[in-house]
Amino acid sequence: MNWANRLYQSFYNATVPDQRYLAYIDGLKATLLISLLAIIIGIVIGIVVAVLKATAMNYGMKWLHTICNVYINVIRGTPLMVQLLIIYNLVFTSRNTNELIVGAVCFGINSGAYVSEIIRAGIESIDRGQMEAGRSLGFDYLQTMRLIILPQAVKNILPALGNEFITLIKETSVAGIIAVTDLTKAAQYIGSRTWDILPPLIIAAACYLVIVMGLSKLLTVFERRLSKGDRH
Amino acid sequence: MIVTKNLKKSFGDHMVLNGINETIKKGEKVVVIGPSGSGKSTFLRCLNLLEQPTEGEIWFEDTNITDKKANINVLRRKMGMVFQQFNLFPHLTVKENITLAPVKLGLMSKEEAGKKAIELLKRIGLVEKAEAYPNQLSGGQKQRIAIIRALAMNPEVMLFDEPTSALDPEMVGEVLDLMTQLAEEGMTMVVVTHEMQFARKVANRVLFMDEGRIVEQSSPKEFFENPSNPRLREFLSKVL
To answer: Is A152 on the interface with B (CB under 8 A)?
Structure first.
């Protein structure tokens, strides 16, 4: 029973004294806030870039297409942590920036590149005839996109998008390097206080797991509701 | 109503349309036939600029639609198009398919468009399918709904791109019947098809295309009974 007692003691030390559980909760809040903001920013950028890219192709605006590709390639071709440091040091010249916001923006810009590629693939999965049918009824390109192509593409986009969000939530764990006290950073702090790093890290890992599983569940429900429309 | 002047279209090096001069008058029913690869579908798709011509002009009711300044989106409202693959919108109900364009383009209120949709559905005997989704319909039903979806815009001309080619044989009749009705009501129609009986019965004029040109055109009677072009004679001997 000795080991069980020790285990209990470690986890107790990692949570209760000095109200350490509050640190996890604050860290969790930061992680969730960064993730949520980044997801929103990522979706907005993703949709804009994907539609711009498709539009540029449609209207033969090569330069716009190139700009979109440069963005996607640069973001996908460089490590997230380096991007984070670059943006942080770029913005952090003024002393009173909010690290949390900088982090969220950076993760959002990063995610946007992946989301735009996911959306592009979703748009391309829709039969060409749908665009032609929309255009032949008198809709312009963007109206057809909005009313006909995107609503259908969502079904193909959603699973991949869910994956991207899961990855994003987990990747926010590197936010600590720009002085955001997120869940991972909070766990490290507590570990350095108690001289026992493993229990807080395991607690943090469990929190991530719960968030990700919750999100997966939510996405499954969402996907099922969407597919109801086409399988009567 | 539609005039094409020296219409040319090429995909890369491949010349698909090789200078087409054609006039389609109001109320005319023109049937275009020809072997596959002869450019007949491309010709039709150029008429509402689903394909951008490489050269030449297309005039629709005194507007040069190939002119950069022409607003093709507004012009297309007057040109209904029916596709081989139906292209109904699978995420919308039958009724929504029909009302989407008139409502979203601000031509009708939701109520008006809904009423019109039901009227059109009654006409083709599919009013009970108003709330169904396209996947629940047979091919013939889909195509008839695609036709009335185009009609809901009150077009001046209807373009048909092989409307029966993707259908099971037993469903071809119902679609051709509807097209025949439209023709009898005086709709201007341009039809690309392989249905020779339909051409014979409904057309005012039959065009034969080969290698990107219109090589023969005449009344259906003359066309089928007295073809002069050797390519046409060979074609007819194969398909009739």
So the answer is: yes
